[in-house]
Specification:
The protein has 4 domains: 175 residues, no CATH class; 130 residues, no CATH class; 102 residues, Roll (Chitinase A, domain 3), CATH 3.10.50; 213 residues, Chitinase A, domain 3 (Roll). Helix content is 42%, strand content 23%. It contains 23 helices and 23 strands. Strand 15 and strand 16 form a beta hairpin. Helix 7 packs across helix 22. It starts with a helix and ends in a 6-residue tail after the last strand.
């Protein structure tokens, strides 16, 4: 439910008018509230080009994000997402200011009351679907009198500010995208390049033909490579490496036996109880009782075939299902359709929160609907005139449901449409958390009628006992207390026959560690201590972790040791190429092949836009040389490629035959590619910005 709707329910039109007043205030102030928060304080979470990101305002936005996404996203994920949004907004705001992009009062008014108004839900006629602009304006016209700063800020943060930011971004992106231009010569060259083909003869000596052990790669070689490719080996932020061992607190064999005994102790009662629902609730089954039938072919549990074959009242188990021990009991069997189509009219009974018809009046109305339907009145007319189900007004009251949706429907309604027969016409009373009322239901169609079963599953999770957890905790504490430094950590791990695991490049604001999962407390410890320190045990899921910091990598150019794993193979191949090229002697390709111990091969129909060479792989340098007109009929110098050393002779160059290429299509494709790149403009802005991140102080 929206914020405005919640306030309306609690305070009716008086409170709502106050909120509405805030909107006009913002309109008249030309969206001045977007530049700051009345609840800002001096606690700074970060800076973007000198502009502060305040923690108080960030927390307010984070709280709104949590309400919006609910359980769909964890808090740490939202913090990272919101942080990136704040940086992008700050960087783009600088661009808006430079370009003079803004949202005027008139534009904001159009946004608030136009086709995409953020207030449509509050001012849309539920019967017609019409956005009542005049009603909205009349209600919002009273906002001027409001003095409630909290409500003003709520409206601004939830509706005004997002609408302004969205409009500003749209204007900026449109301005950038409309500035894209592709000249005629570029279109012509692209077409020519796309159509170009070449036929070559070549020789190829793979790097694998030279033993790795015969080529030594020194630290000086690695450093020279780093210096030559400096931009590729820049670390933007600090990263730390740890080594760790774990002490598992997983359930033991005895814990499993204890849960099995617990299940077996109630097995007899489970098999005979007449009130299975109450029994399942009392025994706190991990899998609650589903009082509904499920089509046999939809059951997907371990031992499904054996369970489906049980007679009514029969039981199966105990058996393992993941980390649970389960008993299954067949409660009932029947035939039912796998899917149905129905139509209905709903008449709700009023409540204190939502006044309406009394129970008796609602019953009389649904009886009238049934009588009119029986007399041939068009069903859609009945839906439009009498039904309180707004969701079905656009479908003439019709719904289609699959049997798997049975548990999500009101029990009385579901039983009427699934347990009856095609053509049934019934009145059913429904009472649930959302509403109480009467349905007039007609079953239009039932498909794939088959056998369905109702099964109760008593499920108990196998959990570690206090003794198991205490043993793991004690072992971890003893290990940590005797491991005062990295050497002691490694020596003690060896005594326990535990092989330390590694986690690399842990960042200061990470909330999880690869291989361990979410463990913000351990990340904080890593950055609050120094290299060689050993942690106290940290509980992570079902285990205790003891870690030692093995390396600290500061921002800047990677060291030789850090870069060697990435660089060594490339440098080794470069040195191999230098050796191999000396053997490529001779004035003809055939002579080079003889001198280097290779054979001349052929590659036809190479394309300029594809660097792949059949039976060899991707070799952009070699394919590029194949389209060098100066090499036509001549032999190239040796080329150090990705997989080996090459030499080639261009036999011919031409274009694909009978290929009709539309210049305008090519042009639009180039422009579209450039426009797509505009959506990544924030990445380029980030590289040129000065961003200070202080989140570690607070999270």
């Amino acid at each position: 439910m929206s914020v405005i709707q919640s306030i309306r329910d609690k305070g009716a039109w008086i409170i709502f008018a106050i909120i509405a007043l805030a909107l006009i205030a913002f309109i008249l102030q030309d969206a001045s509230f977007q530049r700051g928060s009345i609840f800002s304080n001096t606690t700074t979470l970060g800076k973007v080009n000198g502009n502060n990101i305040e923690r108080a305002e960030f927390e307010e936005k984070l709280a709104m994000q949590q309400q919006m996404y609910g359980a769909q996203a964890q808090r740490d994920q939202l913090i990272g997402m919101l942080w990136n949004q704040e940086i992008d907004n700050a960087l783009l705001q600088d661009e808006y200011n430079k370009l003079g992009i803004q949202v005027t009062s008139n534009e904001l008014t159009d946004i608030l009351f136009g086709d995409n108004s953020p207030f449509k839900n509050e001012f849309t006629d539920p019967k017609t679907g019409e956005f009542k602009v005049d009603d909205a304006k009349r209600a919002l016209a009273q906002i001027k009198k409001s003095k409630n700063a909290e409500q003003l800020k709520m409206i601004n943060d939830l509706y005004i500010k997002p609408a302004i930011e969205q409009t500003l971004r749209y204007k900026y992106q449109s301005l950038v995208q409309q500035g894209m231009y592709v000249p005629k010569w570029m279109v012509e060259k692209t077409i020519a390049d796309n159509n170009a083909i070449a036929n070559v003869s070549y020789i190829y000596a793979p790097y694998a033909s030279v033993s790795d052990s015969s080529v030594k790669v020194s630290d000086q070689d690695i450093q020279a490579y780093i210096s030559k490719h400096a931009t590729e080996f820049k670390r933007e932020e600090e990263g730390r490496n740890i080594s760790y061992i774990t002490f598992d607190a997983f359930p033991s064999a005895q814990d499993t036996a204890n849960v099995l005994n617990q299940v077996q102790s109630v097995q007899a009662e489970f098999s005979t109880t007449a009130d299975i629902k109450a029994f399942m609730s009392r025994t706190e089954s991990e899998q609650p009782y589903l009082d509904a039938f499920v089509m046999k072919d939809k059951i997907q549990v371990p031992n499904a075939e054996l369970i489906k074959a049980l007679p009514v009242g029969g039981t199966y188990g105990p058996y393992m299902d993941g980390g649970n021990i389960v008993l299954a009991r067949m409660i009932a069997k029947r035939t039912m359709p796998d899917s149905i189509k129905c139509r209905h009219v709903l008449v709700k009974i009023g409540t204190a929160a939502e006044p309406g018809l009394s129970d008796s009046a609602a019953r009389k109305r649904i009886d009238s609907v049934a009588a009119l339907a029986k007399n041939g009145v068009d069903f859609n007319e009945l839906v439009q005139k009498y039904s309180d189900d707004q969701g079905s007004k656009g479908t003439k009251g019709e719904y289609e449901f699959a049997s798997l949706q049975f548990p999500t429907l009101s029990k009385e309604f579901a039983e009427a449409v699934f347990y009856g027969a095609t053509g049934d016409k019934k009145i059913v009373r429904v009472e649930n958390d959302q509403y109480t009322g009467y349905h007039y239901v007609e079953v239009l169609n039932q498909r794939k009628v088959g056998e369905a079963v109702k099964v109760a599953y008593l499920s108990k999770k196998i959990v570690a006992s206090n003794e198991t957890i205490a043993a793991a905790s004690t072992a971890a504490a003893q290990f940590a207390s005797t491991s005062k430094n990295r050497k002691a950590f490694e020596d003690n791990a060896k005594k326990l026959n535990k092989f330390p695991l590694l986690a690399s490049d842990v960042k200061e604001n990470d909330f999880s560690i690869m291989g361990l999962g979410e463990t913000r407390s351990l990340v904080r410890w890593i950055y609050e201590n120094k290299e060689g320190d050993v942690s106290e045990p940290t509980e992570v899921a079902d285990r205790y972790v003891v870690a030692t910091i093995t390396a600290i990598h500061k921002p800047g150019t990677l060291t030789v040791a850090e870069a060697r794993p990435q660089v060594e193979a490339f440098v080794r191949n470069e040195k191999k190429a230098q050796q191999m090229i000396t053997k490529f002697t001779g004035s003809t390709l055939e002579a080079m092949a003889t001198a280097s111990g290779n054979v001349v091969m052929r590659a036809d129909s190479l394309t300029f836009g594809n660097s792949f060479i059949p039976n060899v792989g991707n070799e952009a340098k070699v394919v590029g040389a194949a389209f060098n007109k100066s090499l036509q009929g001549k032999v190239s110098t040796p080329i150090a490629g990705v997989g080996g050393v090459y030499a080639l002779r261009v036999e011919s160059m031409g274009a694909k035959a009978n290929l009709a290429t539309d210049a305008e299509t090519v042009k639009q494709g180039l422009i579209q590619a450039m426009r797509m790149a505009a959506f990544r403009s924030a990445e380029a802005l980030r590289k040129g910005a000065v961003i200070k991140d202080y989140r570690f102080k607070f999270y």
